[in-house]
Amino acid sequence: MNHRTFYPSLLLTLLLTACAPPPPPPASTAPQKGNPLENTVLDTQGRALQQARDVQKQVEDQAAAQRKAIDEAEGQ
Question: Each residue of 49-76: pLDDT tens digit?
Answer without folding.
Answer: 889 999 999 999 999 999 999 999 987 6
